[in-house]
Amino acid sequence: MSTADIPVNSVLYKIDQAYHGLEKALNYLAAIFLFSLMLLASSEVVARKLFNSPIYGQADLVEISIPTMGFFGLAYCQRMAGHVRMEIVVQALKGRAHWLFEFVSNFATIIICALLIYGTYNHFLRAYELGDSTMDVELPVWPPKLIIVLGFSVLFGRLIISFFGYLRMLRNPNQEAYAVPRSLITEEIAAAEAEAARDAIGDDEVEKPERR
């Protein structure tokens, strides 16, 4: 999508871009936790095999860190249409019918996400009030449960932005789509990969005529 196709004063577009900054930051944080857990697992193997001295509480640290990797990337995955879904029927729909299907699906997801926030918040509150902890080193388990609530809450915000994005497309299906997750078709993926290849090796190399 070219920025030339977007209204300069589009409030929805500005909100979408600002919110995407938050999503990317949380996704980077999830990646840092994933890398840290990889280092922790490697250290555990070395300590156990070479020095016969496993890291005390390693399993507990993994347990409380896993929610960060999964739930802090939910909204980013939704924004980039990276989630797994069946698109045989969706891709066949065109115009307003396509955006109506997406709008209804998004609205149903909003309801489900709201229920998940309610349920996970109750679990967090219960763990906080009871002082629930892990089995070995007795680390508190309410922080990872709070992270789950936050992850669903950020996803809920993304779904609300998409709600207005789909409403916009329902009014005029021919306008440029933004503020909605959009799965790339095969041709668009190929074009993006070709553009990335040109950037990597330079336009001169790509356009150089074949020698005879």
Written account of the structure:
The protein starts with 10 loop residues before the first helix and ends in a 5-residue tail after the last helix. The protein has helices at 11-51, 58-71, 74-79, 88-92, 95-130, 142-171, 186-201, 203-207. Helix 5 runs antiparallel to helix 6 (142-171). With 212 residues, it is an all-alpha fold.
Radius of gyration: 23 Å
What's the story with the biggest beta sheet? none
Report the span from N to C terminus. 39 Å
What is the share of helical residues? Answer: over 70%
- Give the strand tally: 0
**Morphology call:** globular
Give the count of helical stretches.
8
- In terms of per-residue confidence, which ranges show pLDDT below 50 for 5 or more consecutive residues? none
The computed structural class is mainly alpha
Order of helices and strands: HHHHHHHH
Strand content: under 5%
Overall pLDDT: 85
